[in-house]
Specification:
3 helices
Length: 87
């Protein structure tokens, strides 16, 4: 089954390459800047996604480490710094 799928794909690629004709066209300067913008937006999206997963991983790791070492979570960890006025 896999071999027949590969052979069909190979035949389709070879057929496509055999039917190539020259394209009388050019790439506009605006196209290059658009491609650059898409690449930059994709890179920023990847970095943002990695950042969000890293923050989540750090929080889970810290909770597990506190549970293992026996340290209870303080009110500062739960409510944020500076929000507890009773100290």
């Amino acid at each position: 089954m896999i071999r027949s799928g590969i052979s069909v794909a190979a035949i389709a690629i070879l057929f496509s390459l055999a039917m190539l004709q020259p394209a009388y066209a050019y790439i506009d300067l605006g196209t290059g800047s658009m491609v650059f913008q898409m690449l930059m937006a994709g890179a920023i999206g990847v970095f943002f996604t990695i950042k969000m997963y890293w923050i989540s991983f750090k929080q889970k790791f810290r909770r597990a480490l506190r549970r293992i070492t026996g340290h209870a979570e303080t009110t500062e960890d739960q409510s944020g710094p500076g929000l507890d006025e009773t100290r």
